[in-house]
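Trying the structure run again after the queue cleared.
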Amino acid sequence: MTSDFAAGNYRFIPAVFQYSAGAAANPGYEIERVRFDKWVPLAEGFARIAQYIQAAGRPLTSFCACELRSPAAFTDEGFRNFNLHYVKTLAEWGIYDGKTNPVARSNVCPEIDPPAEPSFYAFSFTRPSPGATLSFVIAGSGESQDGAASYAERTVRYRDISPDGIKEKVRYVVGVMEKRMGEFGLSWKDATATQAYTIHDFHPVLADALVSRGAARAGLTWHFARPPVIDLEYEMDCRRVMREVVI
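Done. C-alpha cells:
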C-alpha cells in the first residue's frame, strides 16, 4: 500500500491530492524535523524551507512532511481552494505531479491567538544517514472517514461533542494512526512523538484509548487547536524522528 518517491529518498502512503497519509525514509536515510521558533507565513515559509534544505546539501524533493497553522477552520470549498494553492509550490519543486502528493501534512487552527494567515509551524525532510533506524511521519487525521462524500457525511459522530461523542472520535482517530503506521510495518512502540489537536476535554478517554495502547509512550503533546475543516473536533499525528531542531 506504500509507494516509493525515489527523488526524495522516501516511501509514502498515497491518500489525496493535498497530502499523503504518511512518509518514511528509505534505507540509508533518516528524517529530520525542523520547527520554526515563530510561525512563518506560507510563501516566506516555503522560501526558508528551500534555503534550509539546500544548505543541508539536499534536493527540494527531499521535503517529506510539514505542519501548518491556519487562522480558522475552512469550509469544504475553502479547504480545497487553499490546498490547490498550497500544492503549486510542491509542483514547482518537482514533488507533486498533478495527481499524486507524497508529502505528509498536518494543518490545524489554534483556538487562541491564531496566525493572521496560513503559516508553517514545522517541516521535515530526508537526509543521508547510513545505518539509521527507520524514521517516519504520519500525517494528521481528524475523525472524517475516507471517501468522496462531504466532510459532514463522513464525519464520525458529526456535530456530537458530548463526552460519548468525543470518546468515539478519539478512538476512531487513534485507529487511523495505527492503520497508517501499520502500512510501514510499525506501531506505537516505534513512535517517538504523538500530538493531539482539540479544544475539547478528552481526558476521560486518555487512559483507555491512548495510554493503554502505547500512543503516549513518549508522552503526548496537546495543542489547543481545531482540525482544519469546520465541525471536525479531534486530530492527531505521530512520528519517529531522531533528529529535531528549532530555528
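Residues 144 and 151 are 6 Å apart (CA to CA). Worth checking whether this holds up in the mutant runs.
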